[in-house]
Amino acid sequence: MGVTADGDANPGDVRPDSDVAAENMSGEAVTGDAGPTETGTEPSGEDWEAHAEQVDGGAVSDDDDDADGPAEDDESSRVTAWIAERASAAGGRFRQTAQELRQTLAGEASARAAVAALRAGPPVVEDPDAPRDLTAAAFFDVDNTLVQGASIVHFARGLAARKYFSYSDVLDFAWTQAKFRITGKENADDVAEGREKALSFIAGRPTSELAELGEEIYDEYIADKIWPGTRALAQRHLDAGQQVWLVTATPVELAQTIADRLGLTGALGTVAESKDGVFTGRLVGDILHGPGKAHAVRALAIREGLNLKRCTAYSDSHNDVPMLSLVGTAVAINPDADLRDVAKVRGWEMYDFRTARKAAKYGVGGALVVGAAGGGAAAAVRLIRGR
């Protein structure tokens, strides 16, 4: 789907009312930023867990999601100004850096786009006898968690095959991804260059073109790279009547295609601004990664009435610790070294589907309880044993 600068999927329609709804349900004031600390730095680890307590004590909702505010051309400035106004009203206690503001905006934009896509989709015919667990959900990272490798690199390969750009560009994408995964740190120049290259590619193109390309490239390059073990875990959440969402830095159009093909609820991804069905060449906020993913999950929980304590998140990367710390159950899949260390310390479940030997090592027997006991239709999900 295209996310417009002035349409229903517009992230600029973010107002304090959603926070009021969350405050009424949780008994705590909820900031609009999903967790910046007093010093203006993003929380991590225990900080995210403490901040999550503000919203996950009960289902939260956004009652005014359909009420549109005045349209403005620069939606990023509008939402950023609102966040800054709230920070000022709080005496600067929740000041954010410019990067944190972009991450907040990216999360809000992603959640709004995800809900808009869900509402715009075909009606779902539900089995009256099937379980329904309305306040629990599962959130899956995509790259190396659900899909082998980086989905954006697979997408770039498909575009190169269609002469949209060269294979040297694909190598640049792959090299940047490799450096990021090895070091766990982003190079500002790499990020800026990759962002500009991607935005220059889509600028002026219709949103429908990217969606169509995503469908074709999924079949050619991604369909056979889905980890069966991760797919099985997602299906168990669906069978328990829960929503299942992808959360990824990949463009939301491609992420939505992956979700649709796997029968999942939807996707939270990077949102590129569009106007009148054409990409403007700008992002709404920033690339959805790290703390931005936590912002997106929290914003979606508000809109969908989810209880974060009853939700589960899956990832392979320590960069997703903010998202993993936000929910009641965190699971590491194909974990990098740093995430493995965090998971061991915190007692998180771990799966490794990369080799049979590792799967046997980390595919611990027992049961993974989805959701909190006594919180509704909790379901026991048997851990996958490596064979």
TrEMBL record:
<feature type="transmembrane region" description="Helical">
    <location>
        <begin position="362"/>
        <end position="384"/>
    </location>
</feature>
<keyword id="KW-0472">Membrane</keyword>
<dbReference type="GO" id="GO:0016787">
    <property type="term" value="F:hydrolase activity"/>
</dbReference>
<keyword id="KW-1133">Transmembrane helix</keyword>
<keyword id="KW-0460">Magnesium</keyword>
<feature type="region of interest" description="Disordered">
    <location>
        <begin position="1"/>
        <end position="78"/>
    </location>
</feature>
<dbReference type="InterPro" id="IPR006385">
    <property type="entry name" value="HAD_hydro_SerB1"/>
</dbReference>
<dbReference type="InterPro" id="IPR050582">
    <property type="entry name" value="HAD-like_SerB"/>
</dbReference>
<comment type="similarity">
    <text>Belongs to the HAD-like hydrolase superfamily. SerB family.</text>
</comment>
<keyword id="KW-0378">Hydrolase</keyword>
<keyword id="KW-0479">Metal-binding</keyword>
<dbReference type="GO" id="GO:0046872">
    <property type="term" value="F:metal ion binding"/>
</dbReference>
<dbReference type="InterPro" id="IPR036412">
    <property type="entry name" value="HAD-like_sf"/>
</dbReference>
<dbReference type="InterPro" id="IPR023214">
    <property type="entry name" value="HAD_sf"/>
</dbReference>
<feature type="compositionally biased region" description="Acidic residues">
    <location>
        <begin position="61"/>
        <end position="75"/>
    </location>
</feature>
<dbReference type="Pfam" id="PF12710">
    <property type="entry name" value="HAD"/>
</dbReference>
<protein>
    <submittedName>
        <fullName>HAD-IB family hydrolase</fullName>
    </submittedName>
</protein>
<keyword id="KW-0812">Transmembrane</keyword>
